[in-house]
Amino acid sequence: MTDKRFFTETEWSEFRSCYRELVATLRDVFSGEELLSIRKIVSDAILQGEYKRDANGVNALLRAMQTAQLLSEKVGAEHDMIMAVFAMPLVASEYWGIDDVARLYGPDVVKLVRGLLKSHELDSKLGAMSSEYFKNLLMVFADDIRVIFIIIVDNLALMRMLNNHPDDEYRLRVTNEALCLYAPLAHKLGLYKVKSELEDLSLKYSDREMYNFIAQELNSKKKYRDEYIASFIEPVKKELEKAGLVFEIKGRTKSIYSIWNKMKKQQIGVSGIYDLFAVRVILDSEGKNEYADCWKAFSIVTNMYPHNPNRMRDWLSAPKSNGYESLHATVIGPEKKWVEVQIRSKRMDEIAERGLAAHWRYKGIKSEGNLDAMMNSVRDILESDSNDPLEKIKDFQMDVYDKEVFVFSPKGDLYKFPYGSTVLDFAFHIHTKLGCSCTGARINGKNQTIKYLLKSGDTVEILTSSTQKPKKEWLNIVNSAKARIKIKQALNEIENKSAELGKELLSRRVKNRKIEIDDALLMRLIKKMGYKTVTAFYLELGNEKIDVNDVIDRYIALVEADKQEAVEQRSADEYTLDKVHQDDNKVDELVIGGDIKGVDYRLARCCNPIFGDKIFGFVSSEGTIKIHRNDCPNAANMHERYGYRIINARWAGKMGTKYVVTLRVVGHDDIGIVTNISSIIGKEKNVYLRSISIDSNDGLFQGHLSVAIDDISALNALIKKLKTVKGVKDVQRGAM
């Protein structure tokens, strides 16, 4: 293992030092044979040239060695984790296969190597997603919590190697990952020293000048600071002992990153930070004595050193929402320097540090539901009295994200879906058009159907066909509400298009046969054929489920039947016949002039007066009297120019005559509205629809209805009902 082809002089020195430390750490855990196995792995791989530098120039062998050494130091010298660290790069380079790992080291190492391979695959895609998404997916891929330990420590090893890396852009990218992803994960797992070093290195690489400034400030005053804390603690210790309290007291200095963070938030210098060094008093008190002892210690400290009331924090009387309990006092110590003192019981300290209060949330890191609970369990295992907590962690299941799946597009974009989502869900999420034409997908290079259930980590490439169309059964395939809504919309569009085709087909055929369609009569036929809506009728016509010629023949038969009925009863044309005097035994409808009856008259077509309208008579040039409404459009002109021809007229008795009235209806362009209008008119007693014409434009329709009706009161009632139809905007009485 003396071949230096893989190392610079600096790297070779680091490698030898790291190797010696690792061997020294592993001697108590690994047998001599296992240590020789590690040496052989490394030596053989070097001879074969397999531990190559990665695409960014990082020495893979030195990185693996440092990761293994840091794992044994920071987490624990667990056999399978160490072996997986050395085996993973060799499997990634295809020097070894998974079968080789299984044969040499067993299924547990295989499990770890697979988790590491998946995680490193994700690392290349991190730029295409948020760190939060990456963290979620990492939890899914890791499968074993030990994989998370390895990759956190591996990131620290990488960060240590980047100090003199020539690529600033790469160094900043790794720095950002460490700060946003791995440091918070380390904190959650209780790897506080790892978390602190990752944060400090991130500041060092992103703002080296500030890092050096704070480091120099701290280093230049370290001896003084240690002496100062000791001088502060000593008299407090004596007074607490004198009061009969059992306690532990310790001082600490903030990390460089924490100091910088506070400087930035508070816009102050290093000297302006109140708790640059802090003292924590942890009391060995239980039950009802906890709070009394805390306040007693608080009183002793603040009696010895003046405190700032504005900086006092009482989280005993009112604990934080996350359960955090403690007393904080900022006091003026020797030399008039500010010192923060935290006072709490052992129970409170355990809560603050171990998870009942979720200490990471107290420090400003957001909760993540299941992930927090899982991390608490891991921390409990790590901080338990067990001689080998890592042995327990082997069986710890990573099932925190079993309600979601995370998949990639071919470009590397990451998408999150509910568990149970399919290829169709993915297609419709990307675009409705893509979903409508989806025939399947290529998942990780293999063809799959639209029913394929997505799995976390899948790379999904949608396959399409121009002949593919959405189907109703697709609603049973998708799992997301978004896809279901889009499918329903697509199906409605298809039905509307088919209905339009059916309508055009019928219109074209009746035109060829020179037949005029009466809409009211067609509505009757549609209902007679058993269709609840006009759209359903036209849809089946467009889909050729019913024969258009058969429909026309049935329509003609209905027309003939109506004609025959009209002949037997009364012709519709009689509603507009010229009104002459009636039989002697009937009362005349109109009184003309003063009290003249029996005079020939006609109802003017320009305003169509009906029984109940206010009217007047006009003597035409032919001598015929025409009856007009007082509000007739022509009334003003007739009174002004031909006043001498105007005669009074009024209604006398009602003879049961039907009067023809034209109504103008405006509304939204929807064939269903016409159906509703026809239905209302059909249900009205003694009201008959004679004709209807529709003209649509820009989403609105304008219809002219000709109805036969008894009088003005019946007309007003009809207009009122028609205005209540959904989609109708206005109904007005008009001319013929």
How large is the share of residues in beta strands? 15-25%
Task: State the low-pLDDT regions, or none.
Answer: 354-369, 566-588
Please, what is the oligomeric state? Answer: single chain
Structural class: alpha+beta
Number of strands: 19
* Arithmetic mean of pLDDT: 79
Helical residue percent? 40-55%
Strand order of the largest sheet: 1-2-5-4-3
CATH homologous superfamily title of the largest domain: Hypothetical protein af1432
Query: Any idea how many domains?
Result: 6
Count the DSSP helices: 27
Report the principal-axis shape.
Answer: elongated
Assign the CATH topology of the largest domain.
Answer: Hypothetical protein af1432
Query: For this structure, what is the CATH class of the largest domain?
Result: Mainly Alpha
Radius of gyration: 45 Å
